[in-house]
Write a structure and sequence with these properties.
The complex is a heterodimer of chains A (463) and B (642). Chain A has 463 residues and is α/β, with parallel strands linked by helices. Chain A has 3 domains: 118 residues, 2-Layer Sandwich (Gyrase A, domain 2), CATH 3.30.1360; 133 residues, tRNA modification GTPase MnmE domain 2 (Four Helix Bundle (Hemerythrin (Met), subunit A)), CATH 1.20.120; 161 residues, 3-Layer(aba) Sandwich (Rossmann fold). Chain B folds into 3 domains: 308 residues, FAD/NAD(P)-binding domain (3-Layer(bba) Sandwich), CATH 3.50.50.60; 106 residues, tRNA uridine 5-carboxymethylaminomethyl modification enzyme MnmG/GidA (Arc Repressor Mutant, subunit A, Orthogonal Bundle); 54 residues, DNA polymerase, domain 1 (Orthogonal Bundle), CATH 1.10.150.570. In chain B, helix 6 packs antiparallel against helix 9. Chain B is globular and about 90 Å long. The chains are: A alpha/beta (463), B alpha+beta (642). The interface between A and B is large, with 45 and 57 residues. Chain A: It is found in: Cytoplasm. Chain A: Exhibits a very high intrinsic GTPase hydrolysis rate. Involved in the addition of a carboxymethylaminomethyl (cmnm) group at the wobble position (U34) of certain tRNAs, forming tRNA-cmnm(5)s(2)U34.
Chain lengths: 463, 642
């Protein structure tokens, strides 16, 4: 974060964009009232009571023309979400009106909020603590109910509980090492030999690795599985796309007010959030019946976790098809034989031979439920080995947590390697301690005195 | 002890000093010597001149962490290392089976010889006056300490004052039902100084410590115990003590190991209703790491025996110290308890064990120089600051003495950091975390203990000691020679290749390793667990000048553990970044709404100087530290102050 821009006044559209009934533009910061007053016609907002809603119009001071009829909520610090002055402009939900209002606010003294910045302020101003804010961010970011559950479970502290069990195990080991060092003449504590330490390190490593395995799924749940649909023109890519997007499965579209090169759309496929890459490209190539944009496909494939390669069931495999198969050989891929409602021309065995039978799905995108087998296949691909049944188990979804778990694992590797090289226990202990600290950072536990308390509660010592 | 018949005295001006040190225990002795050696006219005043640097508890020095502190004191020019080297009766290196970071030298002391040697050193120290007297109060004007007033009415003025009152501060001895006002070992207590400190606004805490009974060695059946002799290998505490001064093992005195048993435990359990520890008589908080035997029996009921070490108190006495039997049970119970232990069936108890309660200045009231926050030019050290142990006391005394001396000379203070010395860890723990029990140093308190080894204390601190004028030029030059030899040899090993000769490969394969195919750097080869510096010399030319064993020790440790040392240094670098984030002196924590209430209170009380220090305060959570960091970095503090 840029240190100079914090605590200035920020604004953003707070409702999901699109053609909703109303939209809300939120402003937070010391200048929130000043900014809105410049573009609002109605009561003097500086004089109204806090936590009131006020009818009026937003106008453009340059042209003096009204932009929209609005209701403005005035909430003064500190009893607001961010603990700062907050203004919420309820306007008519069109993209144009909402964007214009946001633009006006930005031109009259506010800055566009970064993603999550309102929550960040709530944290920095002391309304919520660090772990809560992390969980709030995850709930906000959650793309499907399943990812919501993972975040909620983290809020409830399942992850913390598990991490604390691991830390307790490390603490027991460390206390034993320490007691052997600080009280070398006492026979109270079992001597923490290299063998014992190694056994513990190996056991802990397995547990950390198991947690890390869930992280991959966790990340997908949070960020979506980047998915591209590729295929030569007219194989039905956009029908498949539309099919996936229909039935209210679309979750969010891009956030107006920010610009991105590639438009992303999310769909919920049996609990797996797919982040569809370059949907614009799909529509373009289909609509304009351009020659296949291999370059564009290559880019999309490179940035995808999953590639849906569409072939036409009613045509023979073409050179372009083969080229695309080759391009996607290294990707996680599902080959869709589309247009099964038409007579078969494609050599299915040949396709299965080329890409592996288990990765081939046949669909008819124009028929209802035609994509059902495909969706099953995607879900199966993602929730391998019964992970879908482990909703009550802990799943790591937070990137910071993942990186700390990696650190913890690295430290355990160093413990094991050090012991194998024959280094003394008290040196190797440094890495064990580092592991303990990495895990502690996940839960936000400080370790002041903990180790000593452990030492003294467990062993009878003292000269 | 003594009954006061008349409190009257007529005050008189008795003299002026640069530095006055109150109390001549292990802290006070170091403080006074350092101050005088730094050129200050110094007075050391103590209740009983026959108890200068006396060891009222165990007759030993050193051990894990503590032994390193003795070497640190020595490297800074303190006296403890030299003094124990003159007066030990046994020397042992502990933890030899572990890594270099935790090897620990420990000496059994002749406690009477130790006292006499220290007193002699102090008496012969130019600039230093040793006097007997009880300090009743401080002369404080406008929040500045200007001197002291004694029991007999003498007023001494000084630029700075160091209080090392130890357990004499309103001391109270407890043996069973018996309770009486006393300093350590039945000496006079200091009753009025505590009152004066309270009047000045200091918060005092009440701590407790204890000591075991002593028995006559003539009445111990040593055949039922296990002998623990000293080491053959030569080791001393001081850099200055030559190897040839080492006492051969046959001339050292042994310690003896025996055990308590179920019978002992039953005697204790039967008398718990007479144990002051459990009847509520003892108000002071005792140390967990040094529990009384009755405490051990209660807390660890499932243990059917506890070790007891019998340690000689000196060469000219038969008294043996029953280490690990610290107790405040009634005398008759102590006697019974002793007689139940193997080897002590007929032991004659010469002195009973006792518990002692005393006053402590809650250490959050101190700056990192040990100057008090409330009264300028006043310093405290040793047990007065809430610690336990001779070495902890001496380290603090030296530290406070140096800082009091520097202040008297108008110079900048010396602050030791956590990565520089155990003394730095001790100081920071006390002023940052405070302590709820008598504080003992443990290696596990030091997060950079691989850097704080007992073998490299000279490398860490000799330079500082020399700058302060506490290390002679002669010794400093010797140190520089050693340093140069180490650096040169490390460099040579980094540039010397060992060829894969038959001889080398025979050696390597004998240790179950794969033969070398290519040449290997000597320094890399030395990292193998089975290679020592001496085996290395079979394959490479010797150094130009033959290396002393202390140089070889450094070369081996620094080469073999280079990877871990580097990790520790990286951690230090991280800490330094946090230390660089200074907290403004006039920060108003109440104005930062975001801080949790507990964190706010602790921060207000301790007033840390850096974000790193704040992070070490218990009750200040990482999120509080994050908020503090953000506020400071963004100049939000300045905004709040408006």
């Amino acid at each position: 974060m840029a240190t100079t821009t914090d605590f200035d006044t920020i604004a953003a559209i707070s409702t999901p964009p699109g053609e909703g009934g109303i939209s809300i533009v939120r402003i937070s910061g010391d200048d929130a009232l000043k900014v809105i007053s410049k573009i609002y016609r109605g009561k003097d907002l500086n004089k109204v009571a806090s936590h009131t809603i006020n009818y009026g119009h937003v106008f453009d001071p340059d042209t003096n023309e009204d932009v929209d009829e609005v209701m403005v909520s005035v909430m003064r610090a500190p009893k607001t979400y961010t603990c700062e002055d907050v203004i919420e402009v309820n306007c008519h939900g069109g993209i144009l009106a909402t964007n214009t209002i946001l633009q006006l606010i930005l031109s009259y003294g506010a800055r566009l909020a970064e993603p999550g910045e309102f929550t960040k302020r709530a944290f920095l101003n002391g309304r919520i603590d660090l772990s809560q804010s992390e969980a709030v961010m995850d709930v906000i970011d959650a793309k499907t109910t399943r990812s919501m559950k993972a975040a909620e479970s983290q809020l409830e502290g399942n992850l913390s509980r598990l991490i604390r069990t691991l830390r307790q195990q490390i603490l027991d080991v460390l206390a034993n090492v320490e007691v052997n060092i600080d009280y070398p003449e006492y026979d109270d504590a079992e001597v923490m030999t290299s063998k014992l330490l190694r056994e513990n390190a190996v056991d802990l490593k397995a547990k950390v690795e198991k947690l890390l395995e869930t992280a991959k799924q966790g990340q997908v749940l949070r960020d979506g599985l980047a998915t591209s649909i590729v295929g030569r023109p007219n194989v039905g890519k956009s029908s498949i796309l539309n099919h996936l997007l229909h039935q209210d499965k679309a979750i969010v579209t891009d956030v107006p007010g920010t610009t991105r090169d590639v438009l992303e759309e999310y769909v919920n496929v049996k609990g797996v959030p797919l982040k569809l890459v370059d949907t614009a490209g799909i529509r373009e190539t289909e609509d304009k019946v351009e020659k296949i944009g291999v370059e564009r496909s290559r880019k999309a494939i490179a940035s995808s976790d999953l590639v849906l390669l569409v072939l036409n069931y009613s045509e023979k495999i073409s050179d372009e098809d083969r080229q695309l198969i080759e391009l996607t050989n290294d990707s996680k891929r599902i080959v869709i034989l589309n247009k099964t409602d038409l007579p078969q021309q494609i050599d299915v065995d040949e396709v299965k031979n080329l890409v592996g039978a288990e990765n081939v799905s046949t669909t008819s995108a124009i028929q209802d439920n035609g994509t059902e087998p495909l969706e099953e296949m995607i879900a199966k691909l993602f929730f391998t080995q019964g992970i879908q049944s482990s909703q009550n188990d802990v799943m790591v979804t937070n990137a910071r947590h993942v990186s700390l778990l990696h650190n913890a694992k690295e430290s355990l590797n160093s413990v094991i390697n050090g012991l194998d090289e024959g280094l003394p226990v008290d040196l190797v202990q440094m890495d064990m301690h580092a592991c303990w600290e990495s895990l502690g950072e996940i839960t936000g536990d400080s370790y002041n005195g903990e180790l000593l308390d452990q030492l003294f509660s467990q062993f009878c010592l003292g000269k | 002890m003594s009954q006061i018949v008349s409190e009257e005295n007529i005050q008189y001006d008795a003299g002026e000093y640069d530095v006055i040190v109150v109390g001549a225990g292990h802290a006070g002795s170091e403080a006074a010597l350092a101050s005088a050696r730094m050129g200050n006219k110094t007075m050391l005043i103590t209740i009983n001149l026959d108890m200068v640097a006396f060891m009222p508890c165990n007759p030993s020095l050193g051990g894990p962490a503590k032994g390193t502190v003795v070497r640190e004191i020595d490297a800074l020019g303190g006296e403890m290392g030299r003094n124990i080297d003159k007066t030990y009766v046994q020397m042992r290196m502990l933890n030899t089976g572990k890594g270099p970071a935790v090897r620990a030298l420990r000496a059994q002391a002749d406690k009477h010889a130790y006292h006499r040697a220290m007193k002699e050193t102090i008496e012969n120290q130019p600039n230093l006056d040793l006097k007997q007297g009880i300090v009743d109060s401080l002369i404080v004007e406008d929040g500045v300490c200007k001197g002291i007033v004694t029991f007999t009415g003498a007023k001494y003025y000084s630029k700075t004052t160091v209080i090392c009152a130890g357990t004499a501060a309103r001391g109270r001895i407890i043996i069973g039902e018996l309770r009486y006002s006393s300093g350590p070992n039945n000496s006079q207590p200091a009753l009025k100084l505590s009152e004066n400190l309270e009047e000045l606004g200091f918060e005092l805490k009440r701590f407790k410590t204890g000591t075991p009974p002593r028995v006559n060695g003539r009445t111990i059946d040593f055949s039922k115990t296990e002998e623990q002799p000293g080491d053959e290998e030569v080791n001393h505490f001081s850099f200055e003590t030559p190897d040839d001064k080492y006492i051969p093992v046959k001339d050292q005195l042994s310690c003896w190991l025996t055990y308590t048993n179920e019978h002992t435990h039953q005697i204790i359990r039967d008398n718990l209703d007479r144990a002051p520890m459990f009847t509520g008589v003892i108000e002071g908080v005792g140390p967990r790491y040094c529990p009384s035997i009755e405490d051990k029996i209660v807390r660890f009921a499932d243990k059917n025996r506890h070790q007891v070490f019998l340690e000689p108190e000196g060469r000219e006495t038969n008294e043996y110290y029953c280490d690990s039997l610290s107790t405040s049970l009634p005398e008759e119970v102590q006697q019974k308890m002793l007689h139940s232990v193997a080897g002590l069936e007929h032991a004659e108890m010469m002195r009973p064990g006792y518990a002692i309660e005393y006053d402590v200045v809650a250490p959050y009231q101190l700056k990192p120089t040990f100057e008090t926050k409330i009264v300028k030019n006043l310093y405290t050290a040793g047990q007065t600051n809430g610690t336990s142990g001779y070495e902890e006391a001496a380290g603090q005394g030296l530290y406070a003495g140096i800082n009091a001396a520097l202040r008297a000379q108008g110079k900048e203070p010396m602050v030791l950091k956590r990565n520089e010395a155990y003394i730095g860890v001790l100081v920071d723990d006390l002023v940052t975390k405070g302590t709820n029990e008598p504080y003992r140093l443990l290696t596990s308190r030091a997060e950079y203990r691989l850097l704080l080894r007992n073998d490299n204390a000279d490398f860490r601190l000799t330079e500082k000691g020399h700058e302060l004028g506490l290390i002679s030029d002669e010794r400093y030059n010797k140190f520089l020679e050693k340093k140069e030899a180490v650096i040169n040899e490390l460099d040579r090993l980094d540039h010397t290749r060992i060829k894969p000769s038959d001889e080398v490969n025979e050696f390597v394969e004998a240790h179950g390793d794969k033969p070398l195919k290519d040449g290997i750097l000597a320094s890399v080869f030395l990292r193998r667990p089975y290679v020592t510096y001496n085996t290395l010399l079979k394959f490479i030319e010797p150094a130009e000048k033959p290396l002393g064993r202390r140089v070889v020790e450094q070369v081996e440790i620094r080469t073999k553990y280079a990877g871990y040392i580097k990790k520790a240094e990286e951690n230090v670098a991280r800490m330094k970044k946090m230390e660089a984030k200074k907290i403004p002196d006039d920060i108003d924590y109440d104005a930062i709404d975001s801080l949790a209430t507990e964190a706010r209170q602790k921060l207000e009380k301790i007033r840390p100087r850096t974000v790193a220090q704040a992070s070490r305060i218990s009750g200040v959570n990482p999120s509080d530290v994050a908020i503090l960091g953000v506020y400071i970095q963004q100049g939000k503090i300045a905004k709040i102050k408006k």
